Amino acid sequence: MSDLAKKLGQTQVFNRLPPADCATLARLARRRALAPSEYLCHQGEVWAHALYLVSGQLRWTMLSPAGREFMLYSIDPGRVFWGHSLFDDQPMPASLQAVGASEVALWHRDAILPILDRNPAIWHAIARELVATMRRAREIIYGLAFQPVAGRLAKLLLTQFPAQEKKSHERSITLAEIAARVASTPEVISRVLHQFQAEGVLDITRASITLHDRAALERIVETVDKTRRG
User: Fold this and answer.
1) The domain containing residue 151 runs over which residues?
2) Which residues fall within 8 angstroms of residue 82, CB to CB, at 6 or more apart?
3) Of 120, 151, 171, which marks where a domain is finished?
4) pLDDT (tens digit, 9 = 90+) per residue, 64-83?
5) Rounded distance, CA 70 to CA 90, Å?
6) Would residue 130 count as lying in a domain?
7) Helix (H) or strand (E) segment spanning residue 30
8) I need a labelling partner for 221 at 20 to 30 A (CA). Which of 74, 116, 183, 230 fits?
């Protein structure tokens, strides 16, 4: 068994594969050396690959609509990364860039999916890893960009729509007015409101706002206040 096959067999996902399939993955892998700051994929590109980081370090970065770059997290040697496009053929939500000189083992979807599909138990491990990554990225995004705005917006919603029996309120305030009150922009407010909606905290239409989880808004305010005090 090759050195790469042994290393793959030690990862949290590929350790569920039979040794013969790890050996096949190692044989099918395309090794690629990356120079410092070289991009492996760009935000907005369809990149249907998985990779194993042999050496070096990669960073996962996202560009805001204004062109501001946020580093969401880094990938260290021995980790497996799954390109979003591998699963849905949609553009990548962020970019993958080498921090320093790095080496990766790459698999295109056409090479790796047959191996995964004949080992269906592995999909549960992949799902767990992807969910963990999504949770980590969400927390970092909130911390870098949205948390202060989210806290101010949550506080405004709690005061603008006081607790009472009805949860649905007429929307008498525009995005621009909300943004002015919390020192943000309508675009950011829209994203945070839709994030709240995706998490089941509220529903928003052009005519109304329905608060489903006031306690969640109170927790957001409390978290931001603790962060500022710390």
Assistant:
1) 139-229
2) 50, 126, 129, 130
3) 120
4) 666 667 777 889 999 999 99
5) 21
6) no
7) strand 30-34
8) 74
